[in-house]
Amino acid sequence: MSNLISRFYMTFVYENRWQFFLDGLLMTLLLTFASFLGGTIFGALLCGLRLLKVKWIKKVTETLINLLVQLPTLVLLMVFVYVLFSNTSLSVVLTVIFGFMLKAGAYMSEIFYSAITGINQGQAEAARTLGMTGFQAFYHVTFPQALEAMIPLYKNQFVITLQETSLVGTLAIQDITKASNIVTSRTLDAFFGLIFISIVYLVIGFVCTKLLDLLHNKKHLGDGLDD
To answer: Which whole number is the average pLDDT over 52-78?
Structure first.
């Protein structure tokens, strides 16, 4: 027991090493939420472009999505940090957020597009015959049903984005995984550090997916789902 207490002390208390984990946690949260929210906006934009009836726009958009999806996340980030934005004033953190945003957005665009195109368009057409505009038919008929279909995959994408932030340690950014590695290099004991960051990732993922579950409950979707 005394050995465990000593190891815990060396991991978190000695030299205020808990500060490494706190700073790393804040960085992980920043990267995750900024990238996920930005990716949602970017994914919606890509989805909208794919839904346009202009062939060349749809083709260019699909090519961009395929490029972002097929390129490994770490390679994409390294290209941004060490090549595309290496001689700019943009910070490494913002560059990485931009890379994560594009990556997450590419996946989200697929989720949004599949959900929307999977809805029977006859319902929207019927709504328009009743006097609704195209936007009204989409908002009141197509979107609520598409939202129901996309939420499970959307939640999974949040978890994926959270997990991928653990890659940034290779780019000299101190997220919570990097913080654990720093402390482990000093203590030569990874036990408590790995236990702690595992719990952190599980808690963040669990809490945020439960919050997103609220969107899956019709009473939280607003008037768009009212009968």
So the answer is: 93
